[in-house]
Structures are given as C-alpha cells and as structure tokens.
Amino acid sequence: MGCIPDSFVLLRSPENLPASTAVYSFYTEAGTPNITLVSAYSLLYAFPVLVLYLLVNWRYGFRFFGGIKR
To answer: Which residues of 5-42 are buried (b: 16+ CB within 10 A; e: fewer)?
Structure first.
C-alpha cells in the first residue's frame, strides 16, 4: 500500500478508510501520484453527487437564485 499522509482519521485497517482519504493510496512511496488511478478514482468519487444533483434539478427545478418551483 502507498504512503498515506498524516491525517485525523484513526482506523485500525486501511480497508475502512473514507473515500476522500483512500485516494492517497494511489501515491508512490516517493510521493508522486499515479495520475491515471487518481483521475479515475476522482471521477468515480464525484459521480454520485453529480447524479443526485441532476435528479433533484430535474424533479424540483432548483436554481441557484431560487427555491422549489411547483
């Protein structure tokens, strides 16, 4: 497993790391990232948020300056 930087996550096993912290496992021991793995993991990490935003926007019509349209 790669070098995980100091953080405030105190877990006994690396398999239980949160997704936002687990991205650091794609860094080498020298501290350089494997850019393809970091990019793919970041896209998968952001995908559920984008889908949820699009569904809520489609259903309720949220705008940045307004509320719920009925």
So the answer is: eeeeeeeeeeeebeeeebbbbbbeeeeeeeeeeeeebe
Cα four-point dihedral sign 46, 52, 56, 59: positive
Q: Are 22 and 11 in contact (CB under 8 A)?
A: no
Question: 3-state DSSP call for residue 61?
Answer: coil
For the segment 12-61, what is each residue's pLDDT rounded down to a tens digit?
A: 777 777 777 778 788 888 888 888 988 888 898 899 999 988 888 887 77
